[in-house]
Amino acid sequence: MTNHDLLNIAKTYGDPVYVYDSEKIITQFNRLTNAFSGVKKLKLNYAAKALSNITILKLMNSLGSGLDTVSIQEVQLGLLAGFKPENIIFTPNGVSLEEIEEAAKLGVRINIDNLSILEQFGSKFPKVPVCIRINPHVMAGGNSNISVGHIDSKFGISIHQIPHLLRIVELTQMHINGIHMHTGSDILDIDVFLYASEILFETAKNFKELDFIDFGSGFKVPYKEGDIETNIEELGSKLTEKFNAFCKEYGKELTLAFEPGKFLVSEAGQFLAKVNVVKQTTSTVFASIDSGFNHLIRPMLYGSYHQIENISNPEGRERYYSVVGYICETDTFASNRRITEISEGDILTFKNAGAYCFTMASNYNSRFRPAEVLWHKGEAVLIRERETLDDIIKNQVDVKNLFSKKEKATVK
């Protein structure tokens, strides 16, 4: 996908616009599969929260992926996209028993991460197989908001609560078919991941009827040229050896499962936006675009880095710009970033916009959410239309005659 292709997409579908390259998604899926080719049973469950457009879900299904979901709505989207219930795992956090019951009735696999719900669900549905999410108390991840396996995390059942967990399982006679962990996102140190896996293996020995062990995901992708990333091939080699040895000790060939999200779609996505204003102040040159953190919140929320390129002037002289949005509060994508010279009307592209960009977008400031386009086999395919004012107001209720006369302020 060339700059010319991207500019044509912006011209055809308007801007801002999200663009996803299907070939990159397929390449990442195959890369992860190949890294664990030494495992007899491997299951990749795409994490729908990263990018849940139904066309993307259908693409994942066509690759043979399962689906990792965190809400009943994602479960329903997965079923609409054609996933079989048994290929969907429901891994929520802090949801009601009713939501988990609803997922169970749809026939998807259930993953429970707290003792309270485990006991309630097991007492009510002892014959429904359940996976248990363990908190290994391992700190991993590139940001405190996305490090979820440490001791103070709200996620998972503490390894120190295993005796209590086993008592619940014994009393309810429930069937535990899987053990799961997820330590965090943007993992660089595979030794930390391997250390956490040893904790998971040790925990798994307490359960005699497992079908799978789920290691979550959180693999880091590069955000700029020369950036470091998780060495998937090295991790695949080392974890495969450990996993196969455990299966031999366990006496059964288990399925090794992962839940990649960002790893599969992040690099496949680009976000295109037009420059509205180039503004020189006493110390800074601002490039203000026709978007804001309502469309790309990660830099403001996580301090995430997105490489920015001026595809309208890719060979221009580099200058320093602070790229900002149109939201009426601090709304900064990049400060003093070297970008080829920008003029008003130029199109900028934000790299790594495939994961947690559209899915975290909002209508803040009553702005419309952009269109989504899939670049597939050399063609641009519209997979979500740009919102209109009708979308903003369609669920609002205009109560007639509620304010039938002029309201006057009362002074006390």
Describe this structure in words.
- The protein is built from 12 helices and 18 strands.
- It has about 400 residues and is an alpha/beta fold.
- The chain folds into 2 domains: about 20-265, Alanine racemase (TIM Barrel, Alpha-Beta Barrel); about 270-385, Beta Barrel (Lyase, Ornithine Decarboxylase, Chain A, domain 1).
- Strands 1, 11, 12, 13, 14, 15, 16, 17 and 18 form a 9-stranded mixed sheet that branches. The protein has an 8-stranded parallel beta barrel with strand order 2-3-4-5-6-8-9-10, surrounded by 5 helices.
- Helix 6 packs parallel to helix 7 (about 160-170).
- The longest helix is centred in the middle third of the chain and has 19 residues, at about 230-250.
- The N and C termini lie far apart (about 65 Å).
- The model is unreliable at about 140-150 (pLDDT under 50).
Please give the radius of gyration in angstroms. Answer: 24 Å
Number of domains as seen in the coordinates: 2
Structural category: alpha/beta
End-to-end distance:
66 Å
Chain-wise SSE layout:
Elements: H1 3-13, E1 17-21, H2 22-35, E2 42-47, H3 54-62, E3 66-69, H4 72-80, E4 88-90, H5 97-105, E5 109-112, H6 115-124, E6 130-135, E7 157-158, H7 162-172, E8 176-180, H8 190-204, E9 212-214, H9 232-250, E10 255-258, H10 262-265, E11 269-280, E12 285-289, H11 298-302, E13 308-310, E14 318-324, E15 332-340, E16 347-350, E17 371-376, E18 379-384, H12 389-393
Parallel strand pairs: 1-17, 2-3, 2-10, 3-4, 4-5, 5-6, 6-7, 6-8, 8-9, 9-10, 12-14
Antiparallel strand pairs: 1-11, 11-12, 11-16, 13-16, 14-15, 17-18
